[in-house]
Design brief:
- The chain contains five helices and 14 strands.
- It is mainly beta.
- Strand 13 and strand 14 form a beta hairpin.
Amino acid sequence: MNCAFMKSLLASVVFVLGSVGAALAQQVPDLAPLQPSLPIASTPPDTPQLTTPPRVEIPVKQVNGLLVVEAEVDGRRGAFFLDSGAPALLLNKREFAPPGGESAPPTQGSRGVNGAMAGLAAYPLQQFAWQGIVLQHQEVATFDMSSLEKRLGVDTLLGIIGYELLREYAMTLDYRAGRVLLQKPGAAGAPPAAGVRVPFRLRGHLPVVEATIEGRPYQLGLDCGAQTNLLDPAAAAALARK
């Protein structure tokens, strides 16, 4: 297992909190105390590999304001949330338990926002396949998504597709047509329709744009997995005083 990779990945799972709201926030603990005792899994014999075709057009549907697509993990096909605010591919711990009875270490001192204990584990993925995008032989973080499934009315959620699998593409979301277009720069095919161009810069894996609210400049993160517009409490308080 690549411990450095997993520490970085698990530490960044917290970014998902802003993407799928309070339901997921209840499942993800403060991750700092977990890092010294990450679960140990056997290292896959093959080198991690990501295959990304130049252009992919994918059907997508909305479920309670979130984008849902179908993908396959180790021969099992099912629903995934598409969330550019998530750092990487994340799997449902209930559906993808560690092999050989391995489990996540106790999360002593780590609690979610509702006070509940939560645990993280690593699943030795053999193959993830999504409309020609293929990830093989990778350790993938897993956590309990049951509360998220219940609150959003999804019977079985296999996981969340995040930035790791989207980073090479320009992504176009067509909500009316129910499709997402992923296209690498210079790839053949019709370009997206002309529209408003907004400059942004990456902060970690999140694109950040500048906007003006009530005459004041703010920096806002763009996230296709967010259900609503969110403001930092400090910014909201400042606007309320005007």
